Records
---
Amino acid sequence: MINFLETIGKYVIRAIEEMGQILILFINAVIWTFRPPWRVRAIIKQMESVGVDSLFVVLLTGAFTGGVFTLQVYYGFSMFGAESMVGSTVTLAMTRELGPVLTALMVTGRSGSGIAAELGTMRVTEQIDALYVMAANPVKYLVVPRILAGIVMLPLLTAISDFVGVIGGYIVGVKLLGVNSGLFIGKIIEYVDLSDIFNGLFKSAVFGGILALIGCYKGFYAKGGAEGVGRATTEAVVLASVLILVSDYIMTAIMF
Amino acid sequence: MSDPIISIVDLHKSFAGFPVLRGLNLNIERGRITFIIGRSGGGKSVLLKHIIGLMKPDSGRIMLDDVDMVRLSENRMNRVRQRFGMLFQDGALFDSMSVGDNVAFPLKEHSHLRKKEIEQLVRDKLALVGLEGIEDLMPSEISGGMRKRVGLARAMILQPEILLFDEPTTGLDPIMSEQVDELIVQTQENLGVTSIVISHDIPATLRIAHRVAMIYEGEIIIDGTPEEVRNSDNPVVQQFLKGEADGPMHLGD
């Protein structure tokens, strides 16, 4: 019994420690964000890696999500003759939920893991120590540009994902299933508010911050050679995905 | 001892309950070459990381000219670090930057020189370590020995007072090792730099060191001139110098 409690206690302590470390890293990153000189080139480079390079996978995800969602909604709505509502339903789902969350999860798999692997490798090959030794703060050099890139690029990617999702829905709904084009678009204009879109984009900015922060955290504290870097990468994807889904629920409950 | 630049007093450090440094005392003489020897995993790298503030001790003091570095704030520590240069075991070059940008990095951070001047200094330092015209290569495109020498050029570019070397010749061929040893001697002779070197190369240690200190079980068991160390009657020291498997040294753990 004591052993059992000890084991649970150990996990709880470890989890609290980890949350504390993440918070400290985050606070440090915020402090260093406002201290000149600003690394504009590093930030742009990270924006390219997090944003531009993720474009293709986000386009694919968005288009097919919009398409398949339309397929499912049409099946349900046609049972009681509400086919005209398909367009607005798909658009609301994309802008409020599917666009932000699926984009964030895809980018976590792509860039969150990449950040953890890169920083983890820098850690185990003493490059992060070398930054400290040369009196160049690694949080400023490595963490701040990545978090800023996440916060800026995720809403942009999400906006694109929302848009192609609706296009995908339109193609499936109007072209394949025969919903009236005017009704499809008309109901979108009638039922979707600007705030639906903006709240979704706000959430995606938070998700972008989370996936970059967790990637940096796991990489920053990686140890144990190649194996350790691999472990850090996996843990970063898992932890960031979970945090994205949990924070999504909390934000949605507050905002909508 | 005459004029220590660094005095380490009663340094303790444990990792996960296992003591690595157990009350270590050592003086580093100004402007001289001090070699630190000892078994792998015996705390040599840990000691070096304490000297440059990458690790904080559990207790003890590290005095640099009467300033206790252990208690410095991060900001003041950063200023103190500019007096140091460090060569890491595998060079620790930034692999996202070219060789030239790596060597130029400390200058771009801490000086206000113009681009042309920085380029010239980088060329000079690379020439000093026998590597000319490789500024545009990436660290992944050069050999391990070259990476180490580039790391050395980077460590020296701000002309630090104190240079730390973490196994500078491990993994180099004999001729290259000789050249790096020669470089350590020259920087000391020409610029009066204080060097602290971790090494497993016993013959080179006894040849070029001014002082040799040996770590054993978390303490310095001998600290003296190469002559004194060679003639020591401490059986552990003798066993280590001769590289014998049998002897009083604890090989466990």
---
Amino acid sequence: MGNFGVQFRRDLLVAIRGRTETANPIAFFVLALSLFVFAVGTDSETLPRVAPGVVWVVALFAAMLSTENLFHRDHDDGSLELMLLDSRPLFLGVLGKLLAHWCVSGLPVAILSPLAAVFINAPFEIITILVGTLLLGTPVLTLIGGIGAALTAGLGRGGLLLAVLVMPLYIPVLIFGSGACYRVLDGATVTGPVLWLIALLAGSITLAPFAIGAALRGSQEY
Amino acid sequence: MNQSLIEVNELTCTVADQILFDRLALTVVPGDVLELWGPNGSGKSTLLRCLAGLFEADGGVIKRAVGLLYMGHRPGLNELLSPFENLRWCAGLQERDVSPETLLSAIHYVGLDRYKDEPCRTLSAGQMRRAALARLCISKSRLWLLDEPMTSLDDDAVALVRDLIAKHRSAGGGCICATHIKLEFPQTRVLELGA
Amino acid sequence: MGSIKDVFHRMGSPRFFYQGSSLWVRGLYIGGTLGLIIGSFWGLALAPPDKYQGDSFRIMYIHVPSAHLAEMVYFACAVAGFVYVVWRMKMADVFIAAAAPVGAILTLLSLASGILWGMPTWGTGWVWDMRTTSVLVLLFLFFGLIALRQAIPRPDRAAYSVAILALVGVVNIPIIKYSVEWFTTLHQPASITFANEPTIETSMLWPLLVNTIGLYIFIAGVIVAAMRVGVLKREQATEWVRDITRSMQR
């Protein structure tokens, strides 16, 4: 498996060592959800109706905010140089890093989402599809976010810039993800959007690491 | 027999409208140590980064025959991981199976036995450099590119670097080293930049 | 073969571009303005009013060309990005740097005219229909190109990163468009239909065509002019640019 395993193990270890920082996206997820409830109100008509969309948007923000750290520290401490020195393609190493990152950002959010759904009074029938679409969609968010993180690596605090670069590219994931949930609410079939999410996942797994690798090679040239 | 480890021709690099080097040529063969001298900002680091492939020069040809080791200003150590874990990761990057004993003896060699399991953020600047030096001990690369390896090192550690480079060259390796402290090896060559 | 390579090489030379393009700008401006005047006059005064929308449809003569041009400018940026990533041609980057703000302005123009058109026609300024939404996303993509360049201090590094971003964006455009289409068919309110659209009369179409071509030429002129400024800025340390500034000061 080459660098895939090496990077995956290392980044997971780093995430476990930096527990508090790792927990931030999850804390953000819960906090932002409750903010939404405070803003929208607990009206039993509105809240269940907006719930799937709100959970999806908040999950998307959590994913985006956490990708900022993906290459930042490695750039600052010089680890990134060592990765790039290796003349072998970056593809697998990058994929390993992203998988480790997803395991501590997207995956916990997807696992927590049933709780979150109950928390904001989402209808019960959407819970399965919510978890399913988040499991399919958050890796795509991580992969696309990785491109933005690689492009802004070494630019100091690039948080808002990252958002500007990445959010337009998140739109399809959001549409199909929350769209599938609403289809369940409306009693329609969800095959279409779910297949689309799978296609997006397959496409981004094959293409995003190339873009990330190219962007990282460029990030060294300051 | 005397195959060169790196051969550079016509290397030209401009940064911020300032010409750092113009049609520079250099060759390193096994056993060579090339020192880069020059004042701050004369392009020593940039040259090393070009040679390592981390920086794209404006023109010129760089022919590298072999794998290389690069040690820059930044130590390449994650501050949450211990020196041992960092070294293991670094060996793994090159898909090499280095036994834990070898890693531990490298850490012993740079004098960090007591700190091998401490997170790197507890180390001092000099200890960080020592932890980075451990990479030289396990290196199988024949060409070393070292950027100011003596920075913030005490006398013992400076002797250690000399020792490592001496061993490396006698084993048929080559080394390009940007430095302010002369290495004082027999037959080192010197390239002065910004002159 | 050799001569093609030679032309390619010279096209990539900022100096050659600067010296060769001074006449083009004027030509493109004149041609473009002429096209726009003819097309607009034709469209605004001569073309018959629409059966359903009356005269308000005439804003289409600004709206449609600017939306179309904005998209084309993004595609051109992506092509230039490809050229830069593969061949490191400096002029490709100068093109992206010049074209991105122009593209952003075109999307803004298209959105603004769309809102003005929507008011009398749909009774609301903003409708999340497929085309409006795609143009909005396009505006975001242009913002990204501009913001990333601003954020990176070193020009060649910025060039490379922006080129990659343009390529990533262009891969995503069809996907975004499809998803937005899917989204709008899901949420489309029934009151809005485009009944008269497929059967647009040719007498209405001709001025649109003329205006579109005119805008193409005009925008080409704007971009070339902006590229000339970009070239001077990039090459300000070189002798030939110093010669120009010296001769201007005299």
